[in-house]
Amino acid sequence: MRVSDIFQFALASLAGYRTRTILMLLAMSIGVAAVVILTSLGEGARRYVANQFSSLGTHLLIVLPGRSETAGASPSTLMGETPRDLTLGDAEALSRSRHVRRVAPISVGMSAVSWSSRERDVIILGANADFIDIRRWKMARGRFLPRSNLDEAAPVAVIGEKVRKELFGAQNALGQWLRIGDYRFRVIGILGSSGQSIGVDTEELIIIPVASAQTIFNNPSLFRILVEAKSRAAMPLAEAAVLDTIRQRHQGEEDVTVITQNAVLATFDRIFVALTLTVAGIAAISLAVAGILIMNVMLVAVTQRRAEIGLLKALGAPGREILELFLAEALSLSVVGAVAGLLLGQLGSLVIRQMFPEFPAFAPWWASVAGITVAVVTGTLFSLLPARRAARLDPIDALSRR
Amino acid sequence: MIRLQGIHREFQVGDQIVHALNGVDVEIDTGEYIAVTGPSGSGKSTLLNLLGLLDRPSAGTYTLDGTDVTSLTDEQQADTRNKKIGFVFQFFHLVPRLTAAENVELPMTLAGFPPDERKERVAASLADIGLAERAHHRPDQLSGGQRQRVAIARATIMRPSLLLADEPTGNLDSRSGAEVIRILEALIELGITLVVVTHDEKIASRAQRRIRIVDGGIETDVRVQDNAR
Predict the structure, then answer these.
(1) Rounded to an integer, what distance in angstroms lies between the CA atom of residue A103 and that of residue A60?
(2) Domain boundaries, chain B
(3) Which of A108, A239, A286, B118 has the most CB atoms around its CB within 10 Å?
(4) So what's the pLDDT on residue A201?
């Protein structure tokens, strides 16, 4: 029998038993759609986190005070030393490396902020002029911190949108003097709202020169130093330069931790890929269930079509050909079901994207491929048993009944 | 062209062995018209199934056109059924979802003929039995007599040398039955060998040779020269 005839016959018999066919298509497409939608959720979560990180800027190194050892204690903790603080001097020194474009020292604290009779607690970020470019934030009005020496404690402040609203209401905030702790600062700019950026809400903070922050909090140590490398390729060189400089300045102790965005991203990547694979695995179970349903319905079909199978044998179809006919039916069914499921799944993730625009729920290509492959393979494998039963049917027995 | 020698066929029913055929020896020449009669359970259907290669004998040899077909593999037997043997059943056994033309086409499709040749031969065959205008009707849109004529067209589309009919008129009124018999007998003129299993004495009396089977053996085997058809 010709291959085209086999499939034509298979399709005709599928069209002939409509309820059965629709039932199996439904099972198959729901299974595939589940795989596509669930993996798109997992992948969406991964991309969401990746987007959050890329808002940090792409060639960013974060220098934290203290060595974070993941295995065992460092020599310094054994000797009872506490790690040295990061200082403005360290930041200065880092900015001199030729692999580094710019540096932003940061100190953080919480302080009471007041204007006229209004007061509230706000996160105070001590930074420098380069900070806004490194973090890729935008100004709404006014200007950012002026360029100056790091140790110059200028009384100027850039405030977040929500802080402005709560303190100043409808009045113009620019040029006003507000009180942070015991010091007075003049508002020179208002930050644009760029939303959440790794846990920092740009609307709810005040940025002042780092030296001013150190004065308010009476703490000369820095929270961290952001270092931007000259290029992505210069990242490893910059990292080495940072560690080198710190070692020299800290009496040979490498008592800082350098986090690159890539390392953090890679960790999140691994977590979310594992998550996506897990949900894909769960969805694959529904495909197996669909496969079993196909087997059941096929077994019923073989019983229903005994006379037809017997007749085909009498007309000269060997068992092998009967097997091929039934497998072709299962294969067509699986392919059509899988494609329908793929479309359904894509539609589902489109709906998710429409509902949550910031959540990029795109199914990864491998999930679509795997979903279809698993669907077709299970559909065909589970039909093997019914098809073999059909192939072995005794034609006399099959034909003797009406 | 057909030679059965010492054919036995036993079935296991529960713990008993039933002898459906007990040493049957028959020779059938090409172009013979044979009626097989006998009471129910005598073994005439078993004989027809063996002749049609739907069943294998427990003992004995079956030679068809000089080939010992009992030793063929399943695949070879299927091929022989396809090319040399046609079946006509009491209950027609048309595939309900296929049209008359598609039903007739089926053996050629199974044999892998190209679609053009199939269509041509099917159209000619349906015209021969006077059902050209019913080609695209499904079996449930055809009368019993028309269905059996479609079944005959299907059985002969591969131009087999042997046509086996099991109670071909058993499910038809006398007028349709007569028409079916007329078509079958016309095939003999074309050189086909026709074996009809029947209960109907009137039909059996038309055959040139009548084999009566009782208890798995041939009771009588009568050749009628110059029968009045």
Answers:
(1) 10
(2) 29-58+73-223
(3) B118
(4) 76
| Residue tagged 């905030």 (tokens) | A173
* Chain A interface, Cβ < 8 Å to B: 1-2, 5, 9, 12-13, 15-16, 307-308, 310-321, 395-396, 399, 402
CB-nearest partner of B93 from A311, A317, A396:
A311
Residue A140: exposure state from Cβ atoms within 10 A (0-12, 13-18, ≥19): middle
d(CA A63, CA A70): 17
pLDDT-derived band at A284, boundaries 50, 70, 90:
confident
ipTM of the complex model: 0.90
**Residue B38 and residue B215 in contact, taking contact as beta carbons nearer than 8 Å:** no
Terminal CA-to-CA distance of chain B, rounded, Å? 25
- At A34, is the secondary structure helix, strand, or coil? helix
pLDDT tens column, B34-53: 999 998 888 888 999 999 99
CATH of domain B29-58+73-223: 3.40.50.300
Contact B75 A1 (CB under 8 A): no
- Residue to test with chain B: of A315, A323, A329, A394, most B Cβ within 10 A: A315
Distance of CA B179 to the CA centre of its chain: 17
Written as one string, the DSSP assignment of B73-128 is -HHHHHHHHHHHEEEE-TT----TTS-HHHHHHHHHHHHT--HHHHHHHHHHHHHH
Ordered by start, the domain boundaries in chain A are: 3-53+266-400, 100-228
Is A9 in Cβ contact with B78 (below 8 Å)? no
Contact criterion met (CB below 8 Å) for A228 and A134: yes
pLDDT per residue as tens digits for the range A64-112? 888 765 544 555 555 545 667 889 999 999 999 889 999 999 999 999 9
**Tokens representing residue B40 in the block:** 């129910």
Taking only the tens place, the pLDDT of each residue in A300-340 is 888 888 888 999 999 989 989 999 999 999 899 889 999 99
User: How many residues does this entry show for chain B?
Assistant: 229
Rg of chain B taking only CA atoms, in angstroms: 18
CA A353, CA A359: separation in Å to the nearest integer?
6
